[in-house]
Amino acid sequence: MKLLYTLIIVFSSGSIFAQVGIGTTTPLADLHVVGDALVQGGLVTTNLTTVSSSEENFKLVTRITNSTPAGKITILDPDYMDVAPINTVNYHFVNVHLDNLSDVNLMYDEDKYVVGVANFRHVGDAIKKVPGGDNYSIGHFVVRTFKSGGTWHLEISNKELDLNILDSLEYHITLIIYNKLYFREFPSITTNLGGSNTGTASSVPIFE
Predict the structure, then answer these.
(1) Whether residue 93 is found in the same domain as residue 156
(2) Residue 198 to residues 149, 188, 195, 205: CA-CA distances in angstroms?
(3) For residues 137 and 147, what is the distance between their CA atoms, to the nearest angstrom?
(4) Averaged over 50-76, what is the pLDDT?
(5) How far apart are CA 107 and CA 175, in angstroms?
(6) Cβ density class 119-155: b for 16+ within 10 Å, e for less
(7) Which residues are bridge partners to 115 per DSSP?
(8) What pTM, to 2 d.p., does this model score?
(9) For residues 207 and 196, what is the distance between their CA atoms, to the nearest angstrom?
(10) Which of 23, 38, 57, 105 has the fewest CB atoms within 10 Å, i.e. the most exposed one?
(11) Does residue 109 sit in the same domain as residue 28?
């Protein structure tokens, strides 16, 4: 007796919707990962061209290149950050006599931040002109941040002239604070121009 087996394959049309969970049995999205994610190749991404009012609370997903092994995925969540990647802080110094702030400790840790200066202006009594060379001079201002004792400091000073001792003025300045978690500070490059007004820098930063 011969037995005849008939295999019937039924094809049906339609769409199948499924959610995939990794580390969870109850996925809440098309792909729901509970735990760490490691990407050692490239990520396929799209551009965020506009942000509507309903999308303002989005988080940033980033790939860590120095994790072990490289490629750990994490979230940049501003809600849990002490500072943002870039911050601006406005300072207002009042009742400044003889116009010089030689050393103001800004208290920003130099290992964590890079501090720059923008939007400097002074308000109040003017520096009186004095003869200088063929013309009259009001000196020259130096406005800079520098490191000292592990923190960032501020100098605002006129290197040649001071106000009259009874006069005073105000300084307005904006500091730009860069978080070193997201930015690198390149080392200083020193070039001796030998007294010339022109020259070529001795080296350039190496971008890795």
Answers:
(1) yes
(2) 34, 19, 9, 20
(3) 30
(4) 75
(5) 13
(6) eeebeeeebeeeeeeeeeeebebeeebeeeeeebbbb
(7) 177
(8) 0.59
(9) 29
(10) 57
(11) no
Count CA atoms closer than 13 A to 131's CA, side-chain side: 2
From residue 149, how far is each of 20, 57, 109, 110, 153 by CA, in Å? 53, 38, 9, 9, 9
Taking only the tens place, the pLDDT of each residue in 94-144 is: 887 777 888 999 999 999 999 999 988 888 776 676 776 667 666 677 899
pLDDT tens sequence across 197-207: 998 888 887 76
Look at residue 80 and give its three-state secondary structure: helix
Residues 71 and 115 grouped into a single domain: no
Report which residue type is found at 134: D
d(CA 37, CA 31): 12
* 110 and 174 fall within a common domain: yes
